[in-house]
Amino acid sequence: MNEYKFRDKISGENTFHCLICQIFGNSSLASRVIFNDLICEENPENLPEILRPGVTINRRRGTAEENKLYFLETSPVNAQLRFTGEILIQGNINPNYVDYAQALIWAGLQQINALGGSKSVGLGWLKWELPEISVDEKVWQFLVKEEVNN
Q1: pTM of this prediction exceeds 0.90
Q2: Rounded Cα distance, 54 and 118, in Å
Q3: CB contact set of 105 (below 8 Å; sequence gap of 6+)
C-alpha cells in the first residue's frame, strides 16, 4: 500500500493516511492545499442586473409549491464571465515521497463542469482554462500502483 506514516497531532502515535487525506487533510493531518477565491475580472458596472423568476417544486408531488415564487439576481445569459484564482500546494512532508498532489488536483478539476447550486436551471456551468502541467512519469506509475492496490 502506498500510504505514508505520519505522526498524529492528537495522539502522538504513528498513523497512516489515504492519498486524499494526505492532500486535503483530516482531523489529525493539516491540508497541504489552499484554494483562493475565484475573482471575476469583469467590471460590475458593465453587467446589467438580471432577475430570473423561479418557483419551488415539490419533488415528491412534482408540482409547484404555493406562495414559493422567488427571484434570483444573476448575470446575463451566456455572459462568458472570466474568473481567476490560485491553488497553492505546499510541498510534500518528506521529499523522498512521490508528490502526486498537483497531478490529482489538475485531473480532478478537468472533471468538474459546474459549481454551486441551481445547476438544473443553467447556473454555475463553467469551462476551465487550466495551465498545462508537466507530470513526472513516476507520479503516474505511483498512482496506477495505488489504484491496483485498493
Answers
A1: no
A2: 11
A3: 23, 33, 87, 89
